[in-house]
Amino acid sequence: MAFTTQALYIEQVIQLARSVIIKLDSAAEVMNKYLVSIGKTVDANDPKSWIYYRHLAGLYHPTDKVMKITSLDTLEEIEFTYDNLKYHRATFNAYRSKGDFYKSLVALYPEQVDLINGILNPVDINIAINVPNFTVLALDTNLVNANETNLVDELQKYVTGFSDSWYNHNYCYLFDEYPAIFLNTLYTTLPSAILNIRKNNIRTEYVHDYHLWAYLGSHQRIDKYRDYLTREQAMWLYRNISYLEAHPGWNHSFTELIEWLLTKRTIPITSFELTHNLEKLGETISPSTEIVKRPLNKYAYSSAGLKKETIEATLNKETSLAPANKDYYAEQIVAVPEKFKLSPFSSLETKVLESDMVDRSDAQPVHFINTVFNEWMYLASTGRYTANITLTNPYTSEVLSMTAKEAVIVWLYCLHRMLDVEIDVVPTFLAHDVMRPISPRYTELRDMSPRMYVSEEMILAVMDEFVPQGQIISVEKFTEVVTN
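Above: the chain's sequence. Below: its structure in token form.
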């Protein structure tokens, strides 16, 4: 597992290095010389028209062939341009991942690789023209953690130092290939440079996830809880895990763990305390024993005060926590109160802790999943949601492509078959609380709302929030619509 994780990390570093775009005017000059040599016109006074800068900005040059692809959103043929990919989001994501679709396009247009990369990750053409040589213009931010805010700056320092040491512009006058050879040499060192930058970021706030979780994994196998810890909690453990291991059982360590792992996530925690109940002491010669649940953070407090329960109830809760607990139940239910009633202390802390939570994730008048479901049914049936959806057959691994409306039918069929119900006709479905295609009129909203509670300004504010939606041609756009 560790080897696989490391291999994936190295692969991502190489992908990141390949995505780095570095400016070099000499490369633009060489490309212009080539165009002139084949009889093309180049305006030396207008860098915005140069093929080098247009490709960086994701723009076609007059000498380029217009690339056409099949949209994965609508299955129609579209031109491969930045403007088109803004709307065909599934298509954009498929090509941006540099997978089979990207490789097939590069194989068809090998001379336009720079343009393809520019369309997928464009650079502002004015910035590209005005910045100094060997400036890092862009890289794939999806391969950089949000906290790695120093990565680009450190990479820029490395590129600048490398170019200052080894680049000699005079060679460009002798060898047209020199800029390409130099950039090739520079790019081969970028993976090592990125690895070293991230190595230097270890034990800092800029640490990469790979190093963060590798470290936590070597301490109590905390990486098992990666899916449950927030970034803030993980970073706190990263800074303090050695201290916590060196001070087990300390009250300070216990308090800090409660604060960072539970209170930060609004999780209540209570401790169980044995106490003497003196209410019937006159009738008996010794006090009875009961359990008091004391809150250890603010989310465990109750307006009803301290909660109490019997020893029997507490032992019942512990029965299933360890395999042999049930074997000692009968003995302990008698021994615990007998021993404690003779204790010189009126209360005694135990090591029993409990977190009693109420799941309120569905405590809303309208559930988000219902909104998504109703909008999917409504928009697909009315022809406004026309995205193409790709599924993988779990038995044959065959990729299946279908429209959003066809996906509704497949889902309904699978649902009925799961319930052992045969259907030949798609049943009628009533979509509830779907968004109107056009905004309701002011008079309509005014008539349906009481004037005592809803002012004119409130109605106008609601109307301003309405955003009309036209055709939805991608799953990403549909998600955006139902979320907002």
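The chain is about 45% helix and 10% strand.
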